[in-house]
Amino acid sequence: MSVFSGDPTLAPYLALILLGFLPSEIWRTLSVVVARRLDEDSEWFLFVRSVATVLLVGVVVKIALVPSRELAAAPVWARGAAFVVAAAAFFAARRSVFAAIVAGEAVIILSVWLWR
């Protein structure tokens, strides 16, 4: 008898929880426990934050310059404008990555919607 034999319609959800959510949740919980002991002003923490920021910027630039699938339908000027607006929102909102993402997405969505 399988774990999935009770109700086959729940099998994808159970698989998602067992194989997707729980393995990553263990590491997230462990990182919260370890992070309590870190000093946010230490050189190590500043280095890790800098590396994470650079990786994020690298991924965003790659996505903007060499898009795939649906984003490739957006004109180059729209992707560039979204990048500039996102950078401005990042600094205007006291270095908020969330504000930058929302602003950049809004520009892309509006420009594609108005362009079509």
Number of domains: 2
Give the topology string: H per helix, E per strand: HHHH
How many angstroms does the end-to-end distance come to? 54 Å
| DSSP summary: helix tally | 4
Structure, described:
With 116 residues, the chain is an all-alpha fold. It has helices spanning 11-35, 43-65, 76-92, 97-115. It is built from 4 helices and no strands. The longest helix is centred in the N-terminal third of the chain and has 25 residues, at 11-35.
Task: Give the secondary structure arrangement, pairings included.
Elements: H1 11-35, H2 43-65, H3 76-92, H4 97-115
Keywords:
2 domains, mainly alpha, 116 residues, 4 helices, flat
Summarize the structure.
By secondary structure, the chain is mainly alpha-helical. The protein contains four helices and no strands.
